[in-house]
Amino acid sequence: MESKKLALLCRDLAENKKAENTVVLDVRNLSSITDYFVITSGGTEPHLRAIVNEITDRLQEEHGLAPRAIDGEANAPWQVMDYFDVIVHVMRTDVREKYDLEGLWGDAGKLAPKRAKVRKGKGKARARTKTAARGKGRGKTKGKTAPRPYIST
Where are the alpha helices (DSSP H) in the chain? Predict the structure, then answer.
């Protein structure tokens, strides 16, 4: 897999688990060690574990990719996954502020953040459709079932 694609996939997988402030730094012109850093945060160690597990498990299951190394214990406030061309840093928010990797690699370019998906259609019509799809809103009034029409046989 191309390194840029892998970095963006790691970002997306981290965001699946509500990772915070995820950035992808392009360090190809600054480092001979790796091409991209993915830096993301979580509020607690269990949150960090969920992010790390999402990335490692999904990359292994769906793409057959395993990290060359993982540094940091399961309960550590900073865990690093080395995919050779992409290094993923998962940090507790306070640790990220303390070590300021974005500041240390300030000359690195940042890949554009993920854009929110734009949905087509009218807002109210879409909302009614979602409500109807969940089985609410049609045939019910204030929690009661609407009377059924009489059908003669």
Answer: 3-16, 45-63, 93-99, 101-104, 123-133
